[in-house]
Amino acid sequence: MKFLKNLLSSAETKRRKSHIMNLLVVAAADGKITRPELEFLAHVAERIYMPREEFLDVIQNPQDVIFYPPESDRERLDQLYDLVCMMMIDGEIDQDEVIRCKMFAQRLGFRAGVIDAIVEHVIDKVANHVAREIVFREVMRML
Q: Which of 45, 66, 136, 140 is the most buried (most CB within 10 A)?
């Protein structure tokens, strides 16, 4: 049933589920998922127009979600930005979370040679409350 469900899902559904699953993995990297992390997951799901039942399906059945890569640089950056925000939401930066963000950056399609610089740049900008669009422009120049 799981195979058939994944096969019949649209590309957009797969991308949304994959994005939420990636965030869930980062949230769980420190061994716990906090209320603010769950709230951020719900916020991102809403922002990407994910139906509530689809969101709950990912939360309740994360093992059923497969990685589905984004198609554009904008989408890759958007997902990486969300991953960094998730990592920083509890006010602590756990090294396992940083490692996972870098791993996801590679899976998202960023070149290995720029991943460390990009992730560190996004961490710095998020910590300093720089607007998302400004961060995107800056990172695009790094690509």
A: 45
Token representation of residue 54: 């689809």
Rounded to 5 degrees, what angle do the CA atoms 74, 88, 142 make?
35
Using a 10 angstrom Cβ sphere, with 0-12 exposed, 13-18 middle and 19 or more buried, the burial of residue 86 is buried
Token pair for 4: 């058939």
> What's the count of helices (H) and strands (E) in the chain, helices before strands?
8, 0
Tokens of 22: 């990636």
More confident residue, 124 or 11: 124
Say what the pLDDT of residue 3 is: 52
Nearest to 9 by CA among 71, 61, 66: 66
Could you tell me the pTM of the whole model? 0.89
pLDDT at 2: 53
In this predicted model, what pLDDT tens digit does every residue of 60-99 receive, in sequence order? 999 999 999 898 999 999 999 999 999 999 887 878 888 9
